[in-house]
Design goal:
With 135 residues, the chain is an alpha+beta fold. The protein contains three helices and eight strands. The protein has a five-stranded antiparallel beta sheet, covered by helices on one side. The chain has a three-stranded antiparallel beta sheet with strand order 6-7-8, covered by helices on one side. The longest helix has 23 residues. The termini are far apart.
């Protein structure tokens, strides 16, 4: 009888922790949603393509390069031949289909003084990067 007449004030610790947890989840989702609005999609594509350049550098560091042509690189990795080549608006590695860059307007490789470079144009911006140094 005494318990039913007692009116509680405030929240229990469990209720408070649940409310804080839910508010943190909502804030996290809002920050994630708003951060994607910060950069135009063209800047995101350029950043993804620059990440592709870094991945290519790592791959070529592990490969033995056999031949460099304007649109492709032939290399050996794990005793298998692989070809990096510009196809349509992408830079892919075959066999398989690993996409390193996409939404490209143009792109080519060049070998000069034992250095392999890539040049590509995306969203009107031209990018030149060193990929590997040959032995």
């Amino acid at each position: 009888m005494w318990l039913s007449m007692h009116h509680r004030r405030g929240f229990t610790l469990i209720e408070l922790l649940i409310a804080l947890n839910l508010s943190m989840v909502v804030i996290h989702l809002m920050v994630f949603a708003l951060s994607s609005l910060r950069f135009p999609s063209s800047q995101i594509d350029i950043r993804q393509n620059l990440n592709g350049v870094y991945q290519l550098r790592q791959r070529l560091a592990l490969c033995r390069v056999k031949k460099v042509e304007r649109r492709s690189i032939l290399c050996t990795f794990d005793h298998k031949e692989h070809e990096l080549r510009f196809e349509d608006d992408r830079l892919v590695m075959r066999p398989g289909y690993v996409v390193y860059m996409e939404n490209l307007e143009a792109g080519f490789f060049e070998e000069q003084d034992k250095v392999i470079r890539v040049a590509f144009t995306a969203e009107g911006e031209e990018v030149h990067a060193v990929l590997a140094m040959l032995e």
